[in-house]
Write a structure and sequence with these properties.
This protein is mainly β. Helices cover 2% and strands 53% of the residues. The model has no long low-confidence stretch (mean pLDDT 97). The structure holds 2,5-dideoxy-2,5-imino-D-mannitol.
Length: 464
C-alpha cells in the first residue's frame, strides 16, 4: 500500500474518502440510533479494485466522518470468498441486516447473502444459511450478472430487486418477495430496459416512492464500455414499473448511487465519484474513489427529479464572498481555493455564454470551465490542463439543461481538490474530475459578470 501524501492538493478535504486505498460504491447506508452509517466497497490492499470488503464510516451530522474498521470481509470457502459486493441494509425488527452480493474468484457466480450487525454496527455475523438467493431466473438466459440487492418493506412483506440483464434484450431489475429476508420467491422483472437505450446490463438498481410517483435509478453498462446513471420517474402498477420520463442522473463521474430514508423521512442519495486518471496514477496516489456529498431527493411540480446537497454541509462554510447584480466589475474573484462551495444565479438570457471558471492556474491555461449557453441550452464542463497527459481524461462533459420560461440559471458547485460536483437548478447534474497540477491552480473567474444576479462563494473547512 502506497502511503497517502499529506499535502496532496488533489485529495478532497470535505468529501468522505477512507484514509487510504480503493473505495467505490456506497453500500448499506442507514441512520441507526441517530448516527449515519456509511458502508462502502473497499479494498484494504491498495488503491485498485479487487478483494472487496465493506468499509465503514460513521457521522453524527452528515458533514464530519469517522472511519471505522472494516465491517464485513470475505470468508474463505464460502459463497462470498472473493468479495463482499454491493448491497443495502434494513432494520429487521431491531436487527440491522445487510443484504449484499457474494462472489467467487472469477466473479462468475454472484449470490445474495445476509449478515447481521451488533448494536453499533461494527461486528457482523454472517447468516448460516447463505446464500439466500443463488440462481438467475432461467428466462434471463445468462448466469453471471446477478447482484446489488435493494430491499424495501411493503405492507405485505419484503421486496427486493436484483440487478442484471436478459441476454439479447437489455438490462433488467428482477423483483423478489419474502416474508423473512431468508426465503425469496421470484415474481418477474420489475423493469426491463432496451439494450441500446438503457444499457445491456443494470447495476445497483434503486426503486422507491417519491412524491406522487415511483423512481427507478439505474447504473447502466453500455456495449463498448461506457456506464452512466439513469433516473426514471413513473408508475408502479401490478408490481411492475412503467417509466413516464427518463433523464441521465449524472453526466459525469458519479456512479452506483444508493438511496435510503433517514429519521427525518428524507430520501437521501449517495454516490461513488470515480477517478479520471490512470490505474497507475491511482496506485501512486495511494487512494482512489470519493463519496459524493449526500443529496436530498424530491420531485418538482413537473415530476422532475430534484437533488440538493444536504443542508448539513453548510456548517462547513467558512469565509465567503458575496456579490449581487452589478457588483462585479472584474471577472477574477478576490477569493481563491480548491475547497469551495459556490451558489450562483445568472440571467442566462443576458449573455451568449455565462458561467464560472475554477481551479485556474495563474496563467489561466489550466482550469475547469462550467458554462451555459442559453441558445443551445447546453450545460458544459470543460477541463483544460496546461500540459497534456494522456493518462488524464480531459474531454468535455455536459448535457442539455432547459430553463423554464423566466427561470434564471442556478448553479451549485462543490469544488474539492480533484472533485467538481455541478448541479443546475437542482435537476441537471454533472460530476467532473480535474487534477490540478499545483495548489496554485486555485483561481476563480466569472464568465459574463454582467449576467450575474447573485453569487456566493465559501471556503470549506477540512473534515479530516
Ligand atoms: N460495484 C460492485 C458491484 C456493482 C459495481 C463491485 C458497481 O456490486 O455492480 O465493486 O460499481
Amino acid at each position: 500500500m502506497t502511503p497517502v501524501t499529506p499535502q496532496d492538493h488533489q485529495r478532497p478535504t470535505y468529501h468522505f474518502l477512507p484514509a487510504a486505498n480503493w473505495m467505490n460504491d456506497p453500500n448499506g447506508v442507514i441512520q441507526w440510533r441517530g448516527r449515519y452509517h456509511l458502508f462502502f466497497q473497499y479494498n484494504p490492499d491498495g488503491a485498485y479494485h479487487a478483494n472487496m470488503h465493506w468499509g465503514h464510516a460513521v457521522s453524527d451530522d452528515l458533514a464530519h466522518w469517522e472511519e471505522l474498521p472494516v465491517a464485513i470481509a470475505p470468508t474463505p470457502n464460502s459463497p462470498d470468498q472473493a468479495g463482499i459486493w454491493s448491497g443495502c441494509m434494513v432494520d429487521d425488527g431491531g436487527t440491522p441486516t445487510a443484504i449484499y452480493t457474494g462472489v467467487n474468484d472469477d466473479y462468475s457466480r454472484q449470490v445474495q447473502c445476509l449478515a447481521f450487525g451488533d448494536e453499533d454496527l461494527t461486528r457482523w455475523t454472517k447468516h448460516s444459511g447463505n446464500p439466500v438467493l443463488a440462481d438467475v431466473p432461467a428466462h434471463c438466459f445468462q448466469a453471471r450478472d446477478f447482484r446489488d440487492p435493494f430491499v424495501w418493506r411493503a405492507d405485505d412483506g419484503w421486496y427486493m430487486t436484483v440487478s442484471g440483464h436478459i441476454d439479447g434484450v437489455g438490462g433488467a431489475a428482477l423483483l423478489y418477495r419474502s416474508e423473512d429476508l431468508r426465503e425469496w420467491r421470484y415474481l418477474h422483472p420489475l423493469f426491463v430496459g432496451e439494450g441500446a437505450r438503457h444499457g445491456y446490463n443494470f447495476e445497483c438498481v434503486n426503486f422507491f416512492p417519491l412524491g406522487e410517483k415511483w423512481v427507478t435509478i439505474i447504473s447502466s453498462m453500455y456495449a463498448g464500455g461506457g456506464a452512466t446513471v439513469l433516473a426514471l420517474v413513473g408508475r408502479y402498477e401490478n408490481q411492475r414499473f412503467f417509466p413516464e420520463s427518463e433523464t441521465v442522473y449524472d453526466a459525469g463521474y458519479g456512479y452506483a448511487p444508493l438511496t435510503h430514508v433517514d429519521d427525518q423521512g428524507r430520501r437521501l442519495i449517495w454516490a461513488w465519484l470515480r477517478e479520471s486518471r490512470s490505474v497507475d496514477q491511482q496506485k501512486q496516489a495511494g487512494w482512489s474513489g470519493v463519496q459524493a456529498i449526500p443529496r436530498l431527493l424530491s420531485l418538482d411540480s413537473k415530476h422532475r427529479l430534484v437533488s440538493q446537497p444536504v443542508p448539513e454541509i453548510e456548517a462547513l462554510r467558512r469565509d465567503g464572498f458575496h456579490a449581487e447584480a452589478g457588483d462585479l466589475i472584474d471577472e477574477d474573484l478576490p477569493l481563491r481555493g480548491l475547497a469551495l462551495d459556490i451558489e450562483t444565479e445568472f440571467d442566462a438570457a443576458a449573455a451568449e455564454t455565462c458561467g464560472i471558471e475554477l481551479a485556474r492556474s495563474p496563467d489561466g491555461r489550466e482550469k475547469v470551465a462550467i458554462t451555459y449557453d442559453a441558445g443551445s441550452a447546453a450545460l458544459r464542463v470543460s477541463r483544460h490542463y496546461a500540459v497534456e497527459d494522456s493518462a488524464l481524461e480531459s474531454e468535455a462533459q455536459g448535457l442539455a439543461h432547459r430553463l423554464d420560461p423566466g427561470e434564471n440559471l442556478r448553479l451549485r458547485i462543490l469544488l474539492d481538490g480533484s472533485v467538481i460536483e455541478v448541479i443546475a437548478n437542482g435537476r441537471s447534474r454533472v460530476t467532473s474530475r480535474l487534477y490540478p497540477s499545483s495548489s496554485d491552480s486555485n483561481g476563480l473567474r466569472v464568465i459574463s459578470p454582467e449576467a450575474v444576479r447573485a453569487l456566493d462563494v465559501w471556503e470549506m473547512r477540512t473534515i479530516g
